[in-house]
Amino acid sequence: MPKDTSIKSILIIGSGPIIIGQACEFDYAGSQAALSLKDEGIEVSIINSNPATIMTDKVIADHVYLKPLTVASIEEILQERKIDAVLPTMGGQTALNLAIEAEERGIWEKYNVRIVGVDTAAIEKTENREAFRQLMVDIGIGVAKSKIANSFLEGKEAAQEIGFPLVIRPSYTLGGYGGGFVHKKEDFDAALSHGLQASPTHEVLVEQAVLGWKEYELELLRDNKDNVIIICSIENFDPMGIHTGDSITVAPAMTLSDRCYQDMRNQAIKMMRAIGNFAGGCNVQFSVNPANDEIIAIEINPRVSRSSALASKATGYPIAKIAAKLAIGYNLDELENQITKTTSAYFEPTIDYVIVKVPRWNFDKFKGANTELGLQMKSVGEVMAIGRSFIEALQKACQSLEIGRAGLGADGRENRNIEDIMHKLEHPSWDRLFAIKDALRMGVPIESVRKVTKIDKWFLNQIQELVTLEQELKRYNLNNIPKDIFLTVKQKGFSDVQIAWILGNVTEDEVYDRRKELGLNRVYKMVDTCAAEFPAQTPYYYSTYEGENESRPSDKKKIIVLGSGPNRIGQGIEFDYSCVHGLIAAGQEGYEAIMVNCNPETVSTDFNMADKLYFEPVFWEHVREIIDLEKPEGVIVQLGGQTALKMAEKLHEKGIKIIGTSYDNMDIAEDRGRFSDLLKELNIPYPRYGVAEDAEEAIKVASEVGYPVLVRPSYVLGGQGMSIVINDEDLERAVVKLLGDLPGNRVLIDHFLDRAEEAESDSIFDGEDVHIIGLMEHIEPAGIHSGDSFSVLPPFNLSAGVIAKMEEYTEKLARALDIRGLMNIQFAIKNEDVYVIEANPRASRTVPFIAKAYDVPYINIATKVMLGTKKLKDFTIERKLEGYAIKEPVFSHHKFPEIQKELGPEMKSTGEAIRFIKSLEDPYFIQLYKEKSMYLSK
């Protein structure tokens, strides 16, 4: 059936601010769906309150509504615009819940709007735990023994009937919120109460715990003819008991027998057909008993899920894009494969490589948090790596995480405390993968590791191979390693840094040079969805060590954009937004735009966004070899946050051109000591400061600058490690901890301006003119990280004199640092005196917010200025903001109820929303100001 021509306009509901459990994978899905529908000539409107995402940009949709995700907001849109259909499956649980609420209130019927892409009855069947269990029983699908409970008494009765250990799963929650395992009777009452409170319907499923069983996921698509295809099988490295969002996952499944896989396929298709009559995507999760291959169904999500983004990037099959077309009536056999352009979308993808996803946590931001992993998701991001083998992909994933590891061990950071290692194996946390490697390295038998972790022996054998290979490599020195052994080592994913550490007394560069002498070059393979059966038209690559190099550089002038790596607190989707606009701008200026990134959740790693995509770690060795191959005009580091910026020194050392601001000028801004010296030279006020390399020196500096002092390391993002202290004892403790966490770093001691206001500016400088993008005033006082502060654009309570000083200092610094492109400056204001706290010579987290508020494509403009192809005078900039825009930080503290919620200099928010007000008389603003600004005597 061709598309439904009665649908002329569609509303896509977004997922709102990023929180733990619902991150930017839904913005990726929404962006894909919007572009897919626009291709069909359909007018696309989007409602989403997240200003940091490319999804809420006019390059994605015809109409963008940056409004709170409420039924009232939806009704406002429906009154303003003729909408034929709503697509709620691209915005996670938030969008689905909102669509159901609107349906229950009769909104869709009132405005004659159809829900497409999902059957709301299907949502009820899947989210209501008892309804799902009963449906599975009815269609003959195995499920764990369970019982629904709507009260404390019913829960107790269920536990008595099922027995321990058991699982509590609240209905209608996201990311496993409120759920957990209960191993013994004494812990049950508290866990049950928490689960009942977490569920919006005060309902939980009390279920038999299948701890130690294996966990799998299948991604499915179905069309209007009831054709179903399996896009991808995904196996969890971790056994049942750890939320899939916190599990290391592998695609395709590695340890699944063919018989069991075929059975699982049939059950998944049966489940999808049973939950409702809809065309679109679906995710099904299963558990398998390793002893006998018994399969039970865990859950089914009739929407794009967290795993859909991973499956799309893993296979090259754009699930959200195809699902959007299915929602408007197309069938799978009527659509083309987006990569080959010759085969049908009805072909199931086939891959000849291995994908590994490893989550990224930020437990360092949540002091005192329970870091043990379980049913409730706690990770803030993830990386994906592609290799020809599981172990190669796993090592590349470890290199992508940006936690200071050069791969899976062999980098000088091994744990040698056997008691600590065994504890980590038994109590999984963010570093259990590394503990497994350490245990095997210290001689712990594989079977002992398997019994403690319940991880399949096949995976453990793979890691044991690394240990064996390390021992073999130690027999040689750099100059006598046999070429075949050197090749094997590289094929197993070992970085040059790891090899240098294993050999000892050699550098990374020496290893690099030696393997080049031996002709051991990284080659690039194409992601083609069909294991090379048909030629691919889309340049989407990963690296490995074998024969043919499939990435053939063109003779065009090229620009490489370095991405921001995994999402974490302090570096989120706003930098991906910047990278996407950078790619678009470079393309507009006639460059071949090449993207390097490893985050599967983001739009920048969509193979349609760049002229060429390298899905590789933003890790020096990988970046260096891509540059060696492509020989670009230069590399853009300004758009990828601290990840890309950290690469600037290496690029500078190797003589590789950095597009935009020079390395030395970026270093002045990043090095707190050099920067303060510059401020002094420019006669710009700044807090008194000093630099220390140990606690004794820090105490001396503090006595000179005066307490309270702000203690912080150089070169960090999101306020990592910052604290405010008021005496020598606290200072000594803070400095010792800092130097322990970040060895080799210097500590900066600034006098803290107590009870000062905080503001910031974002600007663009082209070498001649300065354009101040926006001035923002924070409602919270100085001392609370800017990312955790409510920010108001334009300033609402700063005098003309203060604003003039902020503008003056912005221009002075832009000229002194010879900025090309973007710069963010943070100010403290006390008694009408303006102090500069810091300057960031790059895209900041606030630029997307300002761009959306003023409706100006600032990143696009800044990129063209960086490239030197345009000057500011070439642009006509018209701002459209009426009244004020407020940036609202959003937190995920509900995931860590045990931690202290107080805010400070270290950023803790996971996302943000935007809100527009017409005037300061708005009741929302008055209440906000009252709550946040009681410290002010205004």
Describe this structure in words.
The protein folds into seven domains: 9-116, 3-Layer(aba) Sandwich (Rossmann fold), CATH 3.40.50; 145-208, 2-Layer Sandwich (Dna Ligase, domain 1); 214-349, ATP-grasp fold, B domain (D-amino Acid Aminotransferase, Chain A, domain 1), CATH 3.30.470.20; 385-520, Carbamoyl Phosphate Synthetase, Chain A, domain 4, CATH 1.10.1030; 536-659, 3-Layer(aba) Sandwich (Rossmann fold); 688-751, ATP-grasp fold, A domain (Dna Ligase, domain 1); 758-931, D-amino Acid Aminotransferase, Chain A, domain 1 (2-Layer Sandwich), CATH 3.30.470.20. 35% of the residues lie in helices and 20% in strands. The strands form six sheets. Strands 14-13-10-11-12-15-16 form a seven-stranded antiparallel sheet, sandwiched between helices. A seven-stranded mixed sheet has the order 17-18-21-20-19-22-23, with helices on both faces. Strand 1, helix 1 (25-39) and strand 2 (43-47) form a beta-alpha-beta unit. It is globular, with a radius of gyration of 27 Å. Residues 934-938 have low confidence and may be disordered.
List the helices and strands and how they pair.
Layout lengths: L8 E5 L11 H15 L3 E5 L15 E3 L5 H10 L4 E3 L4 H13 L2 H4 L3 E2 L4 H8 L1 H11 L6 E4 L2 H11 L3 E5 L9 E3 L5 H11 L5 E5 L5 E9 L5 E9 L12 E3 L6 H18 L4 E9 L6 E7 L4 H10 L3 H9 L26 E7 L20 E7 L2 H11 L17 H9 L5 H10 L4 H8 L3 H17 L9 H9 L4 H8 L4 H10 L5 E4 L13 E5 L13 E5 L10 H16 L3 E6 L14 E4 L4 H11 L3 E3 L4 H5 L2 H6 L4 E2 L3 H8 L1 H11 L6 E4 L2 H11 L3 E5 L9 E3 L2 H14 L5 E5 L5 E9 L4 E12 L9 E3 L6 H17 L4 E10 L2 E8 L6 H8 L3 H10 L16 E7 L20 E7 L5 H10 L6
Parallel strand pairs: 1-2, 1-4, 2-3, 4-5, 18-21, 19-20, 19-22, 20-21, 22-23
Antiparallel strand pairs: 6-9, 7-8, 7-9, 10-11, 10-13, 11-12, 12-15, 13-14, 15-16, 17-18, 24-27, 25-26, 25-27, 28-29, 28-31, 29-30, 30-33, 31-32, 33-34
Family: Belongs to the CarB family.
GO molecular function: ATP binding; carbamoyl-phosphate synthase (ammonia) activity; carbamoyl-phosphate synthase (glutamine-hydrolyzing) activity; metal ion binding
Organism: Pedobacter aquae
